[in-house]
Amino acid sequence: GRAMKVEQRTVTGAEGHLAVTVAGEGPLILCVHGWPELAYSWRHQMAYFADRSFTVAALDVRGYGASAKPAAIEAYTLTALAEDVARVAAALSEAPAVLFGHDWGAPIAYHSALLHPERFRAVACLSVPFAPPGPVPFIEVAETIYADRFFYQTYFQTPGVAEAELEADPEESLARIYFALSGDAPLDSWLQLKPKEAGLLEGLARPDPFPAWMPAEALAVYAKAFRAGGFRGPLNRYRAQRLDAEQLRHVHGQLLAHPSCFIGGERDAVRHFLPGMDLYADPGAGCADFRGATLIPGAGHWVQQEAPEACNVALEAFLRRL
Questions:
Q1: Of 33, 60, 84, 103, which residue is the catalytic one?
Q2: What are the tens digits of pLDDT across the range 115-137?
Q3: Helix (H, G, I), strand (E, B) or coil at 294
């Protein structure tokens, strides 16, 4: 495609400024990244859809990159983050936007559509299927299942612990996290058995060279951002899960009404977060207008970076059918 003209915008969010990268002209697609990433993780989608007569925007989610980083756990509830997303959509487009979400960006996108339905027209989500909000947060389920062994989300609950480990060398931390959850690592490396008191990075390898989908210059972009911004805001999203149930009470059990689709990597460890279950078995179960699932062979969790071509083809098929 042509050289992409990219604009950096600042939008006033619900609690501080939000950095938004914008490219292209046409109907708005708004991309919401996950943990531990940046707007930059959507670079392949931005180039592809800006070339196809869309405006494509990606924000640095609150707590990340060049966006505001409040310290409080309650600043990272799905309600708070959805408010940010709705404000970005409103700032960039009068017409309803399409949402793309990945990892935590998927639940943030789903809840943006649930809580601000008129602002969005469709939701495409990657790696984490929609589940209607309910009274029991996932973290409580995880604490029961992983009572006697390590699980990253339970490890993240005590403020300061994971921050200290990951901030000691952000580049090394990110390289190991990105590899462990990728399709290039041994299956479910992320969920390997280790004692409850282990650290996150224990047993996670750093390959040399890194798989081609994460070139050194890309890893450097992430490392620079996390060296500057730290991990507190990003980790607070895991801690805020306990506050979501009460805040979302008015939408408990609600199906996702908007047209939606799901894209996942076949080798994503998220599939096996609940032992003995495949969380990708029926990704449209909570969706009232589900348009299909695409599982990409060989890809792991970072599906839009690991397999951008397959991901873009699936996303474009979804958009063209709206």
A1: 103
A2: 999 999 999 999 999 999 999 99
A3: strand
Whether 314 contacts 320, CB under 8 Å? no
Vertex 292 angle, CA 291 and 294, to 5°: 145
Burial class (CB in 10 A: 0-12, 13-18, 19+), 126: buried
- Give the global pTM: 0.98
pLDDT digits (tens, 9 = 90+) for 73-100: 999 999 999 999 999 999 999 999 999 9
Sign of the dihedral defined by the CA atoms of residues 116, 118, 120, 125, in that order: positive
Query: What secondary structure does DSSP assign to 131-156, as a single string?
Result: ----SS-HHHHHHHHTTTS--HHHHT
Q: What are the E-state strand segments in 86-210?
A: 97-102, 120-126
Predicted local distance difference test score (pLDDT) of residue 208:
87
Residue tagged active-site, from 33, 102, 258, 301: 301
60 in catalytic set: no
Asked if 103 is an active-site residue, the reply is yes
Strand 55-59, strand 28-32: pairing: parallel
Asked if 148 and 266 touch (Cβ cutoff 8 Å), the reply is no
Q: What is the spatial distance between Cα 77 and Cα 237, in angstroms, rounded to a whole number?
A: 7
Extended strands (E) in the chain: 6-13, 16-23, 28-32, 55-59, 97-102, 120-126, 256-265, 287-296
